[in-house]
C-alpha cells in the first residue's frame, strides 16, 4: 500500500523512542536517522592494522591447510608421534596467538587523551603526557614520545599503509598539546 522499492520491511509497531520526525526510507543511501551520532567526529579517532591482521589470519589458515594436506599425503608407513603432532599444533597455536595480538592492536584518541593497545599491553595517556608523535621516513610504524622521554610504539598505524599512515600521524600531531 504505497510502498516504494527501497522502503525496507513494513513496520507493524512503532519504535519505542518516539514518533518519527519524517517519513523513513531505511535502505535509501541518503536516509539519515535524526538521532544517530556522527561517527566520524573530528575529535575522536581509532586506528587499527587491518591489512596486517588480515595477512596474519590468512597465513595462519594457510599453515593449517598445509599441515593437513601434507599430513594426509604422507605414505601410510609414516606416522607422527604424539609429541611431533603436539609440536606442529603448538606452532600453529603460536602463529594464531601472534595473529590475535596483531588484531588486538589499536590506537584510540579523543579529547581526553590517547589509548594505545599493542598486542596484550594497554597504555592510557592524557594529551598533557604526550610529548610528540613522529614517524620517520621508511619506518614501519610511528613512535609516541612522552614528556618523561618514554617511547611507545603505535603498532596499529602501519607505515606500509602510506598516505593513510601519514594522515593518521598528522591528525595525532595536531592534538598534541
What does it look like?
With 177 residues, the chain is an alpha+beta fold. It folds into two domains: 60 residues; 70 residues, PH-domain like, CATH 2.30.29. It contains three helices and seven strands, in the order E-H-H-E-E-E-E-E-E-H. The chain has a four-stranded antiparallel β-sheet. A hairpin with a 2-residue loop joins strand 3 and strand 4. Helix 1 runs antiparallel to helix 2. The termini are far apart. The model has no long low-confidence stretch (mean pLDDT 83).
SSE blueprint and pairings:
Blueprint: E1 45-47, H1 50-73, H2 82-104, E2 106-109, E3 113-118, E4 121-126, E5 130-134, E6 143-146, E7 151-153, H3 163-175
Antiparallel strand pairs: 1-2, 2-3, 3-4, 5-6, 6-7
Region (Disordered): 1-34
Transmembrane segments: 50-70, 82-102
Biased composition (Basic and acidic residues): 1-10, 20-34
Brief characterization of the structure:
Helices cover 34% and strands 18% of the residues. It is α+β, with helices and mostly antiparallel strands. It has 2 domains: 45-104; 106-175, PH-domain like.
E-strand count: 7
Separate helix tally: 3
Percent helix range = 25-40%
Sum up the overall morphology in one term: flat
The helix/strand class is alpha+beta
Strand and helix order: EHHEEEEEEH
The CATH architecture of the largest domain can be given as Roll
Strands in their spatial order, largest beta sheet: 1-2-3-4
Average of pLDDT = 83
- The CATH class label of the largest domain is Mainly Beta
CATH topology of the largest domain: PH-domain like
**Alpha-carbon distance between the two ends:** 58 Å
Count of distinct structural domains: 2
Biggest sheet character: 4 strands, antiparallel
Provide the β-strand percentage band. Answer: 15-25%
Organism: Aeromicrobium camelliae
Keywords: Membrane, Transmembrane, Transmembrane helix
Region (Disordered): 1-34
Transmembrane segments: 50-70, 82-102
Amino acid at each position: 500500500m504505497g510502498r516504494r522499492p527501497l522502503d525496507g520491511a513494513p513496520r507493524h509497531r512503532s519504535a519505542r523512542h518516539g514518533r518519527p520526525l519524517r517519513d523513513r526510507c531505511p535502505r535509501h543511501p541518503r536516509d539519515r536517522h535524526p538521532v544517530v551520532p556522527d561517527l566520524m567526529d573530528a575529535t575522536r579517532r581509532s586506528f587499527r592494522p587491518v591489512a596486517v591482521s588480515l595477512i596474519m589470519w590468512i597465513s595462519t589458515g594457510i599453515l593449517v591447510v598445509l599441515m593437513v594436506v601434507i599430513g594426509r599425503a604422507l605414505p601410510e608407513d609414516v606416522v607422527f608421534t604424539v609429541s611431533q603432532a603436539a609440536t606442529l599444533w603448538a606452532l600453529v597455536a603460536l602463529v594464531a596467538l601472534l595473529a590475535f595480538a596483531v588484531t588486538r592492536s589499536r590506537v584510540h584518541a579523543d579529547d581526553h587523551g590517547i589509548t594505545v593497545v599493542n598486542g596484550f599491553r594497554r597504555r592510557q595517556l592524557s594529551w598533557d603526557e604526550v610529548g610528540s608523535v613522529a614517524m620517520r621516513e621508511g619506518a614501519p610504524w610511528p613512535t609516541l614520545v612522552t614528556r618523561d622521554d618514554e617511547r611507545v610504539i603505535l603498532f596499529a598505524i602501519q607505515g606500509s599503509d602510506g598516505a593513510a599512515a601519514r594522515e593518521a600521524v598528522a591528525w595525532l600531531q595536531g592534538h598534541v598539546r
